[in-house]
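Running this now, will post back.
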Amino acid sequence: MKLAPAQLGKHLQGALAPVYIISGDDPLLCQEAADAIRAAARQQGFDERQVFAADASFDWGTLLQAGASMSLFAEKRLLELRLPSGKPGDKGAAALIEYCSRPAEDTVLLISLPKLDGSAQKTKWGKALVEGPQTQFVQIWPVDVSQLPSWIRQRLSQAGLSASQDAVELIAARVEGNLLAAAQEIEKLKLMAEGGQITVETVQAAVADSARFDVFGLTDAILNGEAAHALRMLEGLRGEGVEPPVILWAPGPGIAPAGQPVPAIQPGRTAGQSLQPGPPARLGQAQTADEQGPATLLRTTLGATAARGPAHRCADQGPGRRLAVDEPQSVVAVDGWAAVGVTCRISTH
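Update: finished.
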């Protein structure tokens, strides 16, 4: 059965389920959910703990044997199974199905694994974890960038701290995509804050820039017309060593083949709205990239990305040209704007 992360604390106040599954890709949130289950197990007398790391050479029979054997040191046990690959294989799948169908008595099994995609959840072993009558499946979702300031304010409050809105936004900018760093920086601020109050000056002096970005988030920022955020993400990706071709590939969903209809030009609409079916605008009707809008941002971002790579070059050929990335030329339609004023090719020398 599925259990929302927000309901986990209340659920753990009652009798524990035989099997818990923590699934997600954020290390901090997954760790805290697992810690909450461990703490509840200790409070309810599950004093013995065994940990199994299911790597490629793991003997899945060990898990079943542990469940079937009697404890030597305590009446109740906590078994932990860590599956970092998220793929148990045939033997592992059979073992998970068998255990979930007949879980051991006086035993709690805590399974930790990465986010299960839709196809994995539809397999027999995935259904045994997600839909099993004696399982509690906790899906951990990452904190969205728009929710990050609220998350930080809540953590500061839990730590007995308060902060101005500017200070919260500065912390969010410096730890975006890295909640582990966010938690560590808040612990540091507890030692430096005077009277429990966090100011912008305190953040500037204490909080390091630990933000982490990905190319998909960069694409979202471009499509939403967030110029400053997109350029900051671009700089971060460059610092992490992401190659320009990867960044140029990311806006793929917004690229339409040359000669095909592109979304009608309706400034002010969101990216999702602009990509909805509607009256098409042909190339002759599209605005050029010299006009303001997300298309200009896309040109600037792509140009800056390619130009900064020592072995790559991006050339602006002027109005009327199309965007190409070492492929047949295509037209880019972003948030209702058509970027027909850019030619951008990757070339190595």
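Strands lie at 19-23, 48-53, 77-82, 107-113, 135-139, 162-163, 197-198, 255-257, 330-334, 337-339. More later if anyone needs it.
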